[in-house]
Amino acid sequence: MATRRFPRPKDLAPLLKFKKWEPNATKRRLDKALTIWDLKDIAKRRTPKAPFDYTDGSAEAELSLGRAREAFQDIEFHPAILRDVSQVDLSRDVLGQKVSMPVGIAPTGFTRMMHTEGEIAGVQAADQWGIPFSLSTMGTRSMEEVQAAGPDARKWFQLYMWKDRDRSMELVDRAWKAGFDTLQVTVDVPVAGARLRDKRNGFSIPPALTLGTIVNAIPRPWWWFDFLTTDPLEFASLSSWDGTVAELLDFMFDPTVTYDDLEWVKSQWPGKIVVKGIQTLEDAKRVSKLGVDGIVLSNHGGRQLDRAPIPFHLLPQVVKAVGKDTEVHLDTGIMSGADIIASVALGARFTMVGRAYLYGLMAGGLPGVNRTFEILSEQMARTMRLLGVTHLDELTPAHVTQLRRLAPVG
User: Fold this and answer.
1) Residue 300 annotated to the active site
2) Would you call 239 helix, strand, or coil by DSSP?
3) Phi, psi dihedrals of residue 255, rounded to the nearest 5°
4) Closest CA to 270 of 150, 363, 157
5) 135 phi/psi in degrees, rounded to 5
6) How far apart are CA 91 and CA 111, in angstroms?
7) How many Cβ atoms from other residues are within 10 Å of residue 373's Cβ?
8) HEC states along 259-278?
9) What span, in angstroms and rounded, lies between the C-alpha atoms of 224 and 56?
10) Which candidate in 78, 115, 300, 329 is catalytic?
């Protein structure tokens, strides 16, 4: 039978180790985020409903986004044991230049709506991490401002073809002069998708101060303070707009764009060119034959056609068909470093994150974006070690099995 006694102070002392208090509230908040999902929760608490929903939402019933995320959940890894994994290298060459890890910042529109630091925080984080930053046609900082904020960062420009073709090519010329080395031509937006959260929220540019937005802002005064005490929201590529986001997109985007237009744009651009928004094997083959440098398998984060193909499921067959001639990149649904490692194992040369970056931005500006890539890099390195590999080129399809909830009928 155990003999009991009163605990002595000297026995308790080693057990009572209090964590040092962090005086910086932002760092204190971000240190609690261990996953991208945690950053999303923080972002939701700190950001008014309309801009948060613009980031978090997708089209119609939001099935495309949900299925894309499920596809990453439904994988089985196959680890090798008894390997020396003391050193792990996440770097590789992407479009002719080295990146520190196989993920970059995807182009996102209206970024200063999420946090006043917007694209400046994005390009500065990309510079610090040695990864590419993509500026959207619908960005809220100009190419020149982005260049000034991150002169040494690798910068890509994402192009939507407008109805005004001369205006589109003016942007292309400006991007090259501002030091952007890669053009991402986005081809999956002939018209705007039906983003119902935005319609229900009355999301407009600039934000409308309705009774609902005022009530929603009461527990988030810091967002409104930042928004109202910094320079007015403007777009990098067009004059100011007074209307809903959907109205703006439908006003600008050109539903007549064809393969001939893509070839013409390619002939105008002196740098690397990537086509973003590929969703079928047939289109991947046809675009690859044009001699582009890369393609991005993407359904626009589920923000265009609901029930669209799942890019991660499409990846193996596209890599098999065109991967020897054209770099295959991937976005949509990535929420962890394990998602990125699985994509690389199945042949993706590179991946991009949009929402994951914006969740960090909303959670804490530049420190929040840095926290996003701290989390992803830690998860990537840990996953590789547990798989028994030390370099990305060691990853193969044998490391991953895709499990499917949705199988074709017949």
Assistant:
1) yes
2) coil
3) -80, 0
4) 157
5) -95, 130
6) 28
7) 25
8) HHHHHHHHHHCCCEEEEEEE
9) 19
10) 300
